[in-house]
Design brief:
- With 184 residues, this protein is of the alpha+beta class.
- The protein has 2 domains: 115 residues, no CATH class; 58 residues, no CATH class.
- Helix content is 42%, strand content 18%.
- Strands 3-4-5 form a 3-stranded antiparallel beta sheet. A two-stranded antiparallel ribbon has the order 1-2. A two-stranded parallel sheet has the order 6-7.
- The chain is globular and about 50 Å long.
- It starts with a helix and ends in a 9-residue tail after the last helix.
Length: 184
């Protein structure tokens, strides 16, 4: 992970994104995903890095940054809770992609509360703690691997566990899944 962190630090030192949009409901300013990507893409291309995003089985969006030379990755997840309207869901996913990039690249985003406009004022986030899918759980999964598909395993994990990127990659390796397979 040493190489990717060096490159991310270089990007941190160089990136400057201005808040280019205003939330009319809250009067706050924020950076659009387009503005962030416009600044990030050249910096990443110069360093042989790429970003990809994907939706995680109805519960969130994952953003992965990859160093194409070393193959190292770092990721960030944004959880989406029970939004049934597709247009609202897409807005929240876009917010999640922006949030993940701001987190990974340490982009200052003060006063960024525009996600509030996507939630009904009476909406309350579920407050519960999920168990962590750890090495013990992974070892148990290895014993039962042939009983379940990758999709079944990930659905069970997303419903009942919190999982980090490294552990998800171990599960993908166990089932012979590549990131490209997730886009098929």
């Amino acid at each position: 992970m040493k190489e990717i962190f060096k490159k991310i630090k270089e990007v941190w030192d160089l990136i400057s994104v201005k808040k280019d949009w205003e939330n009319p409901y809250y009067g706050s300013k924020y950076m659009t995903l387009d503005a962030i990507m416009e600044k990030l893409e050249p910096l990443l291309n110069e360093r042989g890095m790429m970003i990809y995003n994907y939706v995680l089985a109805q519960w969130g969006v994952r953003t992965i940054v990859m160093d194409m030379e070393s193959g190292e990755t770092i990721g960030s997840d944004f959880v989406v809770n029970e939004i049934k309207d597709p247009q609202q869901l897409w807005k929240v996913i876009t917010y999640g992609r922006r949030y993940n990039l701001v987190s990974i690249f340490n982009i200052l985003a003060d006063e960024d509360d525009d996600a509030q406009s996507f939630y009904d004022e009476n909406w309350k986030a579920k407050k519960y703690t999920k168990r962590i899918f750890d090495m013990k759980a992974f070892e148990n999964l290895k014993k039962k691997k042939d009983k379940y598909t990758y999709e079944q395993v990930m659905k069970e994990i997303s419903d009942n566990y919190s999982i980090d990127t490294e552990m998800e990659e171990k599960i993908m390796d166990l089932y012979g899944i590549t990131p490209a397979d997730l886009f098929k």
